[in-house]
């Protein structure tokens, strides 16, 4: 139920629609302090129209407004402050959550239109980096948020499985590779080969040339090179799959860069036809001088295509295949120039839908203030981080709750949840400091804290022998109001998270909700009061439901015992 909207409708009526409901709705504020009510309407906007002081208008309006959901309406200076009727509102909110359960807070804005989300997208034969982890968990959460807003998300893993580096890798493998070693440890072996190639290329100029040649042959469909490439890809995907399994993330498509090889000529032709291609040092580029940007490289002098060309083909393919309403790219901010160029080139070529493409950037993962890299020595293989988190959780649970059944499953859910939540609680574009200790703190702002609060709700419900029904659902007590007030805001949070493509809105909300629940728990003896027991358990159940749904949106499990 949208209480703000109800207030707006009443106000619009009271001012004879001098302002329409939507305009009124837009200016309604949420007072910072609870003693100023639940919503406030500033009367400045009417002063000009009525040539009256805002304070006077506020007084008049306050006297006029009446509604069964309003406890009182009072004027404070130029503001009309409205207090919701706690008992009536609690009844409405609680019955809504109880009826809708995991559908609570959903809306139909998207009307089932497709939203393609380019996420994760690691490079074959290279380590899965912290950046790829961020892209995976942020992208997955944004997909869930899209769905909650009525869209149909399409999760696409745009694998980096094409490009000149595969020519180099093929050369390196033929020279120094060992089949058995690659089978055992595909990514680390292939990375070693790739590094060796670059080391030796410093004093052997013929290597670079051989690499270029091998890639050209690959692009021309050479059988042997193709077989090698296919094998590297398969082995790499196998390793990535372990990480996706751990994270619980699934994809609708793995169409990566290689998927577009046969769709590239059409792109070059199209650009040619629209007279956008210019020769520059034998290469073909699209100039972006007016925009004061470097040219977008489309084709090298030897005919090889580039990252940008493949992304052009990709964008067009996605529009044709999915007819997206939005096309999101969850990729680190280092690639901002690339995505700006991409969009501009498409716009120049006359594709209006390029407007709907959005580069959703994110900050870096830091350790001790420095970028965590997989290149310069301190290789942090993500799988290690994840299994580490699970093991540490297992130890904590062994100490805290040794008799817990399903210990293994819970350790998994909590350990992984800790890593995911630590990433998502930060505003998306901020950098994140990596700290296993901080992630696993059961009392901090962590995934485990939320999961623990959720499990605590369930233990209360078990003790109170609760079963969801709609009896005795009014809860007027002051102490419950902060929770109810948050429950009522969930739908707004879901909308905001979508508008800003920002999962941290949901993460922060879940923390607030858990905190207010724990405060309530500390101050109110939930089960001891006969009169209120049932209503309080409804509140606990509703809170558990919304917490669980928030966790689900973020990609976390919510065990009922831990
Ligand atoms: N594979 C790239 C990388 O690891 C990311 C690809 C992002 N998606 C895209 N459509 N360009 O840097």
Characterization of this structure:
The structure is a single chain. The protein folds into three domains: 3-84, Gyrase A, domain 2; 114-366, HUPs (Rossmann fold, 3-Layer(aba) Sandwich); 418-554, Orthogonal Bundle (Isoleucyl-tRNA Synthetase, Domain 1). The chain starts with a helix and ends in an 8-residue tail after the last helix. Helices cover 55% and strands 10% of the residues. It has helices spanning 3-14, 21-27, 44-50, 54-64, 86-100, 130-148, 164-176, 179-184, 186-201, 206-219, 223-247, 264-273, 307-322, 336-348, 382-400, 407-424, 436-440, 447-463, 481-499, 504-523, 530-554; strands at 39-42, 70-76, 79-84, 114-118, 152-156, 277-280, 283-286, 296-299, 326-330, 357-360, 365-367, 370-371, 432-433. Helix 10 packs across helix 11, helix 12 (264-273) crosses helix 13 (307-322) and helix 18 packs antiparallel against helix 21. It is globular. The strands form four sheets. It has a four-stranded parallel beta sheet with strand order 5-4-9-10, with helices on both faces. Strands 1-3-2 form a three-stranded antiparallel beta sheet. The longest helix is centred in the middle third of the chain and has 25 residues, at 223-247. With 562 residues, the protein is of the alpha/beta class. The mean pLDDT is 94. It contains 21 helices and 13 strands. Arginine is lined by residues 118, 121-123, 158, 160, 311, 314, 329, 331. Belongs to the class-I aminoacyl-tRNA synthetase family. Pfam families: Arg_tRNA_synt_N, DALR_1, tRNA-synt_1d. Residues 5-84 form the Arginyl tRNA synthetase N-terminal domain. Keywords: Aminoacyl-tRNA synthetase, ATP-binding, Cytoplasm, Ligase, Nucleotide-binding, Protein biosynthesis. It comes from Shimazuella alba.
């Amino acid at each position: 139920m949208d209480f703000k909207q109800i207030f707006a409708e009443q106000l619009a009526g009271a001012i004879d629609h001098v302002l329409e409901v939507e305009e009124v709705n837009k200016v309604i504020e949420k007072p910072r302090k609870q003693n100023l009510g639940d919503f406030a309407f500033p009367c400045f906007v009417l002063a000009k129209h009525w040539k009256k002081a805002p304070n006077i208008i506020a007084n008049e309006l306050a006297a006029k407004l009446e509604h069964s959901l309003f406890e009182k309406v009072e004027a404070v200076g130029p503001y009309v402050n409205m207090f919701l009727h706690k008992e009536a509102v609690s009844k409405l909110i609680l019955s809504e959550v109880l009826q809708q359960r995991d559908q609570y807070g959903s809306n139909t804005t998207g009307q089932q239109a497709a939203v393609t989300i380019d996420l994760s997208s690691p490079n074959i034969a290279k380590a899965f980096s912290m950046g790829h982890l961020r892209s995976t968990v942020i992208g997955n959460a944004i997909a869930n948020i899209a769905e909650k807003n009525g869209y149909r998300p399409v999760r696409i893993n745009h694998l980096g499985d094409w490009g000149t580096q595969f020519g180099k890798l093929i050369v390196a493998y033929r020279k120094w590779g060992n089949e058995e070693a690659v089978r055992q440890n595909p990514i680390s072996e292939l990375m070693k080969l790739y590094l060796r190639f670059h080391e030796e290329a410093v004093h052997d100029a013929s290597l670079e040339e051989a690499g270029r040649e091998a890639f050209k042959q690959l692009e021309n469909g050479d059988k042997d090179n193709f077989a090698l490439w296919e094998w590297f890809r398969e082995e790499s995907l196998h390793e990535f799959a372990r990480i996706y399994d751990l994270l619980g993330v699934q994809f609708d498509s793995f169409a990566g860069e290689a998927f577009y090889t046969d769709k590239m000529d059409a792109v070059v032709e199209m650009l040619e036809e629209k007279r956008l291609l210019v020769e520059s040092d034998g290469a073909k580029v699209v100039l972006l001088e007016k925009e004061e940007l470097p040219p977008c490289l489309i084709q090298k002098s030897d005919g090889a295509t580039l990252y940008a060309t493949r992304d052009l083909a990709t964008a067009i393919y996605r529009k044709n295949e999915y007819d997206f309403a939005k096309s999101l790219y969850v990729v680190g901010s280092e690639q901002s120039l690339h995505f700006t160029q991409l969009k501009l080139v498409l716009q120049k070529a006359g594709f209006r839908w390029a407007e709907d493409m959005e580069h959703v950037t994110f900050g870096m993962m830091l350790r001790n203030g420095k970028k965590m890299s997989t290149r310069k020595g301190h290789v942090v293989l993500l799988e290690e981080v994840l299994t580490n988190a699970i093991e540490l959780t297992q130890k904590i649970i062994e100490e805290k709750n040794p008799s817990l059944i399903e210990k293994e499953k819970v350790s998994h859910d909590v350990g992984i949840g800790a890593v995911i939540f630590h990433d998502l609680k930060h505003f998306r574009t901020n950098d994140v400091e990596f700290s296993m200790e901080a992630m696993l703190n059961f009392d901090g702002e962590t995934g485990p804290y939320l999961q623990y609060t959720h499990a605590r709700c369930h233990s209360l419900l078990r003790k109170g022998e609760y079963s969801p029904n709609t009896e005795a659902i009014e809860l007027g007590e002051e102490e419950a109001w902060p929770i109810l007030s948050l429950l009522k805001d969930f739908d707004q949070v879901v909308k905001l998270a979508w508008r800003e493509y920002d999962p941290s809105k949901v993460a922060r909300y879940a923390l607030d909700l858990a905190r207010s629940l724990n405060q309530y728990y500390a101050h109110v003896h939930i089960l001891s009061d006969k009169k209120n027991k049932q209503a309080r358990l409804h509140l606990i159940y509703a809170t558990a439901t919304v917490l669980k749904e928030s966790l689900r949106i973020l990609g976390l499990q919510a065990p009922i015992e831990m």
